[in-house]
Specification:
By secondary structure, the protein is of the alpha/beta class. It has 17 helices and ten strands. The strands form two sheets. It has a five-stranded mixed sheet, sandwiched between helices. Strands 3-2-4-5-6 form a five-stranded parallel sheet, with helices on both faces. Helix 5 runs antiparallel to helix 12, helix 10 crosses helix 15 and helix 12 (about 280-290) runs parallel beside helix 15 (about 390-410). Helix content is about 45%, strand content about 10%. Bound molecules: 5-phosphoarabinonic acid. 5-phosphoarabinonic acid binds next to loops. 5-phosphoarabinonic acid binds near residues 83, 142, 143, 147 and 205.
Amino acid sequence: MKTLKVDISKVLGFVPKEDIYNYQNEIDRHHRSILGKTGKGNDFLGWVDLPGETDESLLLSILDSAQKIREKNIDVFIVIGIGGSYLGARAVIESLKHNFSFLLNKKNNPEVIYAGQNIGEDYLYDLLEVLDEKEYALTVISKSGTTTEPALAFRILKSHLENKYGKAGAKERIIAITDESKGALKQLAREEGYTTYVVPDDVGGRYSVLTPVGLLPIAVAGFDIRALLAGAKKMQELNSLGSSLDENPMALYAATRNALLKSGKVIEILVNYQPSLFYLTEWWKQLFGESEGKEGKGIFPAGVGFTTDLHSMGQYIQEGYRMIFETVLAVGKAKKKLVVPMDDANLDGLNYLAGKRIHDVNKMAELGTALAHIDGGVPNIGIIVPEVNEETIGELIYFFEMSCALSGYTLGVNPFDQPGVEAYKKNMFALLGKPGFESETEAIRKKI
Ligand code: PA5
């Protein structure tokens, strides 16, 4: 069974191998508590079993709902959600879709776009302007059912949809994904009679991409959710209790990043060399940032896309403060083939590359950069996948989720809560005069 690999050879010049392997016992302990569901935040461990245990009837229902939406010949499918309620779907869809799908004349799949992940008035206005001209449907996703950003966007888009297709037509074009019983969205969905899917109680937002939260939009976008789950299952199977760091890449990655942190590397940059992986990096940043950044602890997760960002962030990474390590998503082969052509005049001096695949040039940029950054004091973890497809993205999802849980426990935090996210909400509600926040409003007015 071929699966993704973790390569720590480019770390060993910075931390001795034993500093990494010394984490084996601690990782074993955390592994037991994750699989046995006994540690901190253990009521949010439902994601651990999702790949192997997702109900066939749920999958069939998601595929059926996706098909019904696709049969409406929509140009656009809107995913309304924020944080874990949209990033996983976006990461998968953008990794897999045509890089210029929005410009293709002959489309097999609707263009998936996003709303409710910001409060930009111009963003929403522009979206409405475009939707006047397009056939569309949407899903609104909020586990709590009370998050302001998606609720605002949904209020506006629901009204647009109802004006365009009538109330009954709109109802057929809306799928709600939320809590089984509580929250404003649940109540609205019940009253309006929308098709609804449940975000399981025991799965937090950032670990929810393999629930309907991710699976429904990914299926509407035209990608194979069974292959995605199959990839995740391969990782789940590797994650057996008592597996050594050499057998379990998730344990190895978790141990290595903790050893690097201990050596003073407080920033991890996830590096990709494929523009399509930009949102996978965004999802990863949320997963690790929200899971580990608490109690004054945590590795700061940053992301770059190379070679693009070698011409912006490359300077800092090479020579700035030496508190960084990189984790490189190394993709074995491109899906399409493009070769550098011969040019008789050779005015650009590129004939030495003639006949080479663009991907091979990219791989040499990858290797050259890793070696330069190592010389500059930046350790480099490699995560190697053979190519980008549903199965390998599924592997990466489970790989990162499990690594994050193991790593967070090793840091000594609860990787499944996000108490810090409430602070801005409290202030925003106080400033906006939300009913129930009267004393906060009074207190905050004194500060400004
Ligand atoms: O990971 C998380 O829990 C968060 O990022 C949530 O997904 C985000 O805040 C959105 O929450 P909700 O789905 O309740 O609207």
